[in-house]
Every structure is written in C-alpha cells, then in structure tokens.
C-alpha cells in the first residue's frame, strides 16, 4: 500500500513539475536586473530581483557593523525536478549605524537588491551587500505593494562615516510601475511552482505517513515527515518535523563547546541554508547538524556513523552561525532503522534507493 501511495504521489508530482516548468519559462528579468544564474563572480555591481527563502537574525559583524544574511532564489536557479529552494544563494547584508537599514522581508517575499557584489566560496556563489552600496526594497505578497519595512526611529538618509562621509540611503525608491509589475510576474511564477511541486511532494509524504502511523501524529499535531531539503524554521507547527536520515558523524558541536552533543545527518537532498560541513561534492549542502539535548542525549552512543534513523519531533532553528540546525530533545518516538527490512519504511526505502 505504501508503494502505491508513493507511486501515485510521484505521478502527481511529475504532472506538477510540467506545469511548474511552463510557469518558469514565462518569467524573464527586465531593465537592468540580472538572473542569478547569469551572475559572473567579480564582475562588479549587480542588481537582482529574487524570492527570499530564508532570513537570518540581525547581529553584529566582526567589524561591529549590523549584519543579516538572506537566502534568495529566482527561476534561473531553482531545480523544479528536485526542490525549488535547493539552489539558493546566500547574501550577507551590512549596515553601519541602523539595524533598520537592513532588509527585513518575510519568507516568500520578492526582494529588490541593487549594488550587490558576488564571488565564489568553496565553489558556491555568495553575495554581499556593503553598507555604503546596497539599496533594497521589498514587494509584500500579502499587501501587494513595495515597501522598506519598519524604519522605526532610523533616518531615511544619513551621512556615512560618523556623519563625515557621503550622504546615503539604503532604501531603493522605485519609479513608475515597471519594477512592481516585474515583482508580480516573479511572485506569480514562484507561487505556481510552490503549488505544483512543494504541495505535491508534501501530499506524497503525508499519504505514506498516514499509512505508517494511522494518522495519529498528523491528527494531533499537524507535524509531517519532511526531507532535509524542505527543512526550515518556518515549517508548521513552529519548525517541528519528522525525518528519516543516515548518520554521517557524531561528536561535539565544536572544539570551543565540547559539552554540546550533536550528530550530522543526511538524506542526500540539498538545502543551501544548512551549511557545508564536509568537503565532498556528494555531501555539499546535504548534511544537517542536529543538537541532542535533555533526554535525547541518551541516543548519542547508538547513533553510529552509517546507521539509519527515524527522528521524531525534530525542531529546525537558526543557529548562532545563521545556518539552520536541528534540535532533538526527546528520545520518545525516534528509533534506529534496519537497512535490511524496508517493507514498513517507505522513506528509508527511498533513501536507500
């Protein structure tokens, strides 16, 4: 029965992918904006219009500037045959004086970024918005307008360098309707792809999970089984999910904090916001750090490298580095799986396949 559900889910998803591909082809950049896939690292100042898939916390940089990281995608980068968020690009934004000068979009909003610079790091495209160059605006998908967030008491324009430098504003002011119309086209494309890929994949997962658990977990908590590529602090309810993974390594979180126990796990699906802990192409952006605390610490000894696990009630959170991490607090419900018997474990079967 589980295989029939997965097969039907795959058929439905393939139909959705076809529709999503058609939507992608209908989107084109205009004006002086560049597709992410067309960016040449080191080519100078670049203007982009993209979808926000994650937002880091506002914090101080090593130079004491305010900073925040965003992950962005556009139709030129996401892979509709895998996960449309899987090829996101990390962009670090900086502000000298006001945290309110940093972009403050919501996930799935369109963001306009002007004056960005791009380079490669460990083979990955990375962007930066410097404190005296980056200008931005947000298209809110709910309000359907372009805005600059809550500026609070921060000035709209101010001289940099403690008032001795040039006058600067980080807030891009749109002229006419062309940029807003382009935001709408991009958002329409994105929502079409979300509806035909993520929703179909989620339905496939829910169906298989329903057969395994009889619906008790879904009925009481709304939590679903997810791939690492779908992991996000924004998953409902409140960032909690179930997952099936292989243990890559275990140990302390860092040499600086040996008292924190963690494991590194993968299901080989990519997620650009979970980090790159292992310098091998097959594991790049595919390994999530999972911190074990409270009663879950008792699982650490059994979670040997190469073992397979079903993890119940894993919470996805933003770590100190700005990357997404998992946290497991309870032993209850999590269990080791046998690779020799997958008849009742369709997710493990898919992982091994």
Number of helices: 4
Into which percent range does the helicity of residues fall? 10-25%
CATH superfamily of the largest domain: Nucleic acid-binding proteins
Order of H and E elements: HEEEEEEEEEEHHEEEEEEH
User: In percent, how much strand structure appears in the residues?
Assistant: 25-35%
Which structural category do the helix and sheet elements fall into? alpha+beta
Instruction: Give the end-to-end Cα distance, rounded to a whole number of Å.
Output: 18 Å
Can you describe this structure?
This protein is of the alpha+beta class and 353 residues long. Helix content is 21%, strand content 31%. It contains 4 helices and 16 strands. The protein has helices at residues 2-25, 178-213, 216-221, 346-352, and strands at 46-55, 59-60, 66-73, 89-95, 110-121, 124-129, 135-140, 145-147, 158-159, 167-168, 240-254, 257-266, 287-292, 308-318, 324-328, 335-337. Strands 1-3-4-6-5 form a 5-stranded mixed β-barrel. The longest helix is centred in the middle third of the chain and has 36 residues, at 178-213.
Give the SSE layout.
Layout lengths: L1 H24 L20 E10 L3 E2 L5 E8 L15 E7 L14 E12 L2 E6 L5 E6 L4 E3 L10 E2 L7 E2 L9 H36 L2 H6 L18 E15 L2 E10 L20 E6 L15 E11 L5 E5 L6 E3 L8 H7 L1
Parallel strand pairs: 4-6, 13-15
Antiparallel strand pairs: 1-3, 1-5, 2-3, 3-4, 5-6, 5-7, 7-8, 9-10, 11-12, 11-14, 12-13, 14-15, 14-16
